[in-house]
Amino acid sequence: MDIINKREGPRPEDVRAKRLISENAATIRKLADQISGGGYSAMQNRQKQEAPRPDGLVLHDMGGAAKALEPEPYVRISLNGRVVLTCRRTGRQIQLLGEIRHGFPAGTFRIATAERGYLSPVADEMLGAIGELDGCEIGSAMPEADLAAELERRLGLG
47 exposed, middle or buried (CB, 10 Å; 0-12, 13-18, 19+)? Predict the structure, then answer.
């Protein structure tokens, strides 16, 4: 059995190449200028120059950072049955509330809790507000839209 360990430091061929380049830097620079018609040295000088100062200029930042807006939450039920508290302005998920488990004849709403294995369970104060809805049947008696409205009402969003 062969054991191959990585050596400490650079490889010998890399050391030789780096030394060759550094010893011949003046010649390489002269050839680069000859090939580029002086463009190589001009590029090197531009990179060394100081950054431009905006004295007297009016600058407009068209792609600036988004303003920190207060989230406007609402309850959204996705096609796959996830019940999520979402921000109206950004469309980003704020909190997973639970999911609708579809079954026959009707589905049931299950709240996201740590006991059920959710990574971000519903906070205790939220659980107190919507806990009575855990296990409620979703169907003709209570459609998904009514569940969303009831969740918003209990969370004080609507």
Answer: exposed
